């Protein structure tokens, strides 16, 4: 039977359908800018996927559609969904997903566009991309060269320097303002920082590397350049953006430059879920969208929540309802349910881990897959105790956010070889590679790199170099490898295998656990084979690396069942049947690491809101009474005694099912009067213990 071409529209509610169909008329030019602003779980992402499908069904050219999402995973999900719907409606077997090629994050799309236009804007198309750690390394080198690190021990750390630089770039604010607002303790170094950043930019240029921020910065500049702008903007009839509340000023300016009138521009988001201001994102982008495109912008709000049960929604709405700002969206659901979200008091982080594992396994007993459950936390290291407990009880898990596969030194080694082959001027990569050889230290490495950058033929420069005696036996095979990979004599992905074979003896020489590391490299090789070229592989891996897993290989398990561990930031946009939020205590949410300003507190509240609204059926907020805080600013590490997060005050307790676990009286903190009494009694236990042996 002929499939009904628009069957998929029938499943949408009226508001969603209006958003999907708005301004799509194959005869007319794309309709004006569309904003979908709505609360969590109201189907924004789903509506966007349907809109893409609808575009394809109505005859839009998939190669001229640009879809920007928050992560590579989100882009893949959305592409799969949209093309499946469209293919079904069209009754076609054509590979729409292949044609819908321009999907991804702002950064990965930016990298692809920049390579295409590189020659026109003073870039070399073989540029490599520095991840944050590489950037920190480079800034460290530059800082050292300028003599800033020796000038004063109080000079900001490389990580802080980088954070300041990144914030200035992403917000477009003057350095002085950035320092005043976010880094007041670095105010006195303004002049030095300015010099540092100038030298850092120069170093990146001479080495032909870009950092994450550059991908946006160059794209924004390029899109505003009259000679290129028309061509660039003309490539896309439609630009669609998910999670718009977490874009920064640069990203908004890119959209503006690409679509000055907003024709064919769709953005969706939720101002109550803006959680990336620490990276320069600004909720103003979404709030000001209608006025920016006055009077053309069309706004759709969605009010029905399809994700969560009524008690979870009521509690989440109440938590965000106490924010200083007003979010004007009312969400409702018809998913009645008796179980309220649980607010579970446990003694400490150990008990917290046990509680979670206990409940997770219980749910699995009843048939709920591990994959349908997730544990969310504020910072990556908060899951340490839980990871141990999961390992002890043999529960497989995948961890999103936080420490990454790519941070492993052997993974970085192999990537460095590929990066250096791609771009011999990349000193961070080159430095790493040359020092893999025995007897080559930083001084020799620097001389090698100077020679390489002085010529256009890296392999020839290496060949001419007089290696130190200890490296002489390894030098010839090394030169041969570099000649092959730099000259692209070996095709991709066979090139990867060649690099691996060269690398293995070095691995064995330097690491005791060489065999596990070898397995990682092999896994990486199979991943590499799924990319069309070395350059695509490097770009994607640097921008959005694979997640860490409990599996030793470090590459996500594909078919098996596993529990999801994720930072709240990385959980954005996702949903699970059963959700645990760890450390629902003051000191963690809200964090006591910040400056404590009203804006920061509000962002922390939105963070809790994002976490809570991930849950479909069951939500557990776990409250350890004893919570370990690592705080360099305030007297180092310490334990704090917490009771509860300020975001769930007593007035909201009726919305929760408050429990203690295990069901014994919870620990209490020592009281001041109790301690005073003990001091008076002078109980000297140490002395008592000593007498045992007298
Ligand atoms: P978030 O703000 O967390 O990103 P969202 O607004 O993007 O959420 P979606 O993830 O698109 O929401 O949808 C939430 C859930 O509701 C999904 O499981 C989706 O399949 C379901 N859903 C959305 N619209 C409908 C609908 N019209 N009928 C049934 N289910 C729907
Ligand atoms: Mg979404």
TrEMBL record:
Reaction(s) catalysed (UniProt annotation): Couples ATP hydrolysis with the unwinding of duplex DNA by translocating in the 3'-5' direction; ATP + H2O = ADP + phosphate + H(+)
Enzyme Commission number(s): 5.6.2.4
- Give the binding site residues for ATP: 38-45
A UniProt-annotated Pfam family: UvrD_C
Domain called UvrD-like helicase C-terminal: residue spans: 310-573
Q: Domain (UvrD-like helicase ATP-binding): give its ranges.
A: 17-309
List the keywords (alphabetical). Answer: ATP-binding, Helicase, Hydrolase, Isomerase, Nucleotide-binding
Top-level taxon in the UniProt lineage: Bacteria
Q: Does the keyword Isomerase apply?
A: yes
- What GO terms are given for molecular function? 3'-5' DNA helicase activity; ATP binding; ATP hydrolysis activity; DNA binding
Spell out the GO cellular component terms annotated for this protein, sorted alphabetically and separated by semicolons.
cytosol
Which InterPro entries does the record cross-reference, listed alphabetically?
DExx_box_DNA_helicase_dom_sf, DNA_helicase_UvrD-like_C, DNA_helicase_UvrD/REP, P-loop_NTPase, UvrD-like_ATP-bd
Principal EC category = isomerase
| Family as reported in the entry's similarity comment | Belongs to the helicase family. UvrD subfamily.
Protein's name in the database: DNA 3'-5' helicase
Gene source species: Trinickia fusca
């Amino acid at each position: 039977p002929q499939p009904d071409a628009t069957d998929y529209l029938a499943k949408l509610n009226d508001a969603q359908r209006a958003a999907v169909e708005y301004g799509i008329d194959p005869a007319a030019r794309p309709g004006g800018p569309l904003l979908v602003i709505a609360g969590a779980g109201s189907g924004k992402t789903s509506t966007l996927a349907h809109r893409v499908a609808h575009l394809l069904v109505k005859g839009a050219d998939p190669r001229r559609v640009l879809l920007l999402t928050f992560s590579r995973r989100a882009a893949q999900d959305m592409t799969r969904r949209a093309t499946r719907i469209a293919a079904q409606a069209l009754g076609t077997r054509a590979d729409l997903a292949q044609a819908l090629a321009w999907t991804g994050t702002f950064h990965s799309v930016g990298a692809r566009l920049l390579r295409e236009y590189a020659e026109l804007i003073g870039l070399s198309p073989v540029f490599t991309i520095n991840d944050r750690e590489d950037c920190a390394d480079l800034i460290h080198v530059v800082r050292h060269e300028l003599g800033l690190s020796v000038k004063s021990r109080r000079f900001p750390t490389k990580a802080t320097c980088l954070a300041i630089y990144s914030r200035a770039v992403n917000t477009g604010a003057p350095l002085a303002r950035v320092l005043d607002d976010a880094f007041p303790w670095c105010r006195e170094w303004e002049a030095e920082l300015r010099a540092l950043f100038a030298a850092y930019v120069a170093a990146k240029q001479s080495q032909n590397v870009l950092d994450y921020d550059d991908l946006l910065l160059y794209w924004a500049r390029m899109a505003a350049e009259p000679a290129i702008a028309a061509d660039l903007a003309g490539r896309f009839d439609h630009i669609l953006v998910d999670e718009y509340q977490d874009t920064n000023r640069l990203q908004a300016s890119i959209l503006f430059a690409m679509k000055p009138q907003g024709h064919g521009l769709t953005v969706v988001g939720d101002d109550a879920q803006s959680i990336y201001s620490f990276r320069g994102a600004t909720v103003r982008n979404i709030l000001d969208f209608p006025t920016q495109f006055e009077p053309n912008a069309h706004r759709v709000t969605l009010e029905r929540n399809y994700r969560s049960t009524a008690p979870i929604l009521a509690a989440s709405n109440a938590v965000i309802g106490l924010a200083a700002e007003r979010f004007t969206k009312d969400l409702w659901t018809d998913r009645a349910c008796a179980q309220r979200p649980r607010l579970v008091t446990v003694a400490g982080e150990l008990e917290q881990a046990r509680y979670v594992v206990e409940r997770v396994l219980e749910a699995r007993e009843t048939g709920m897959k591990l994959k349908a459950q997730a544990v969310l936390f504020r910072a990556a290291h908060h899951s340490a105790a839980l990871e141990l407990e999961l390992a002890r009880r043999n529960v497989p898990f995948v961890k999103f956010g936080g420490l990454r596969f790519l941070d492993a030194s052997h993974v970085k080694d192999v990537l460095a070889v590929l990066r250096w082959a791609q771009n011999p001027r990349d000193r961070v990569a080159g430095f790493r590679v040359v020092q893999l050889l025995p007897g080559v230290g930083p001084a020799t490495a620097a001389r090698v790199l100077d020679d390489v950058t002085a010529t256009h033929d890296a392999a020839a420069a290496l060949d001419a170099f007089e290696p130190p005696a200890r490296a002489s036996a390894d030098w010839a095979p090394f030169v041969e490898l570099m000649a092959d990979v730099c000259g692209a004599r070996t095709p991709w992905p066979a090139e990867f295998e060649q690099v691996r074979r060269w690398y293995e003896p070095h691995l064995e020489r330097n690491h005791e656990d060489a065999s596990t590391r070898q397995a990682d490299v092999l896994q990486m090789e199979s991943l590499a084979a799924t990319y069309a070229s070395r350059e695509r592989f490097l770009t994607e891996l640097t921008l959005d690396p694979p997640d860490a897993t409990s599996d030793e290989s470090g590459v996500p398990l594909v078919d098996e069942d596993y529990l999801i561990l994720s930072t709240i930031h990385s959980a954005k946009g996702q949903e699970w049947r059963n959700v645990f939020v760890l450390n629902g205590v003051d000191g963690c949410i809200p964090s006591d690491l910040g400056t404590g300003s009203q804006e920061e507190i509000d962002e922390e509240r939105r963070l809790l809101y994002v976490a809570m609204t991930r849950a479909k059926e069951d939500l557990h907020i776990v409250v350890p009474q004893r919570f370990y805080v690592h705080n360099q600013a305030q007297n180092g590490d310490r334990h704090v005694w917490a009771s509860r997060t300020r975001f769930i005050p007593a007035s909201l307790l009726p919305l929760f099912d408050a429990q203690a676990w295990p069901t014994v009286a919870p620990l209490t903190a020592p009281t001041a009067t109790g301690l005073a009494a003990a001091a008076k009694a002078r109980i000297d236990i140490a002395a008592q213990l000593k007498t045992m042996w007298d």
